[in-house]
Amino acid sequence: MNDETSQSQESTDGQSTSMDALQESINAVLEANMNTAPVSLPEPLAIELPTPSPAGITSSSAINMLMDVNLLFTVELGRTQLSVKNVLELQKGSVVELTKVAGEAVDIYVNEHLMARGEVVVVDDKFGVRITELISPETKE
Known about the structure:
Elements: H1 2-34, H2 59-66, E1 73-76, H3 84-88, E2 106-110, E3 113-123, E4 126-134
Antiparallel strand pairs: 1-2, 2-3, 3-4
């Protein structure tokens, strides 16, 4: 155990001596540089790198991924409020009065968010909607 202790002290002393020598050489280099004229460094280069997209997805492939997503598209002709009694009294041929008048623009919702307004049209004996106004995000109800 004594041999190990003496060997570790020798190696520590050897490291200490070499560290002192290293420090002296660093100090000498620093002093030499203090006496010389300042060195001008070149201007850094401005390099524009392309903005990385997450997981290597390009904008066109991101759009293509969304093309198969189903959305709930709802056209609202109008609204009304009925009691349960009145709903149970509804029969074939019953007329339910709505808040909007005939010819007034209908609201178009996508996933329950108002996106547009339009007018009801008939195409080949089927109902359709012609979009007449897109609703901007600032004016959505």
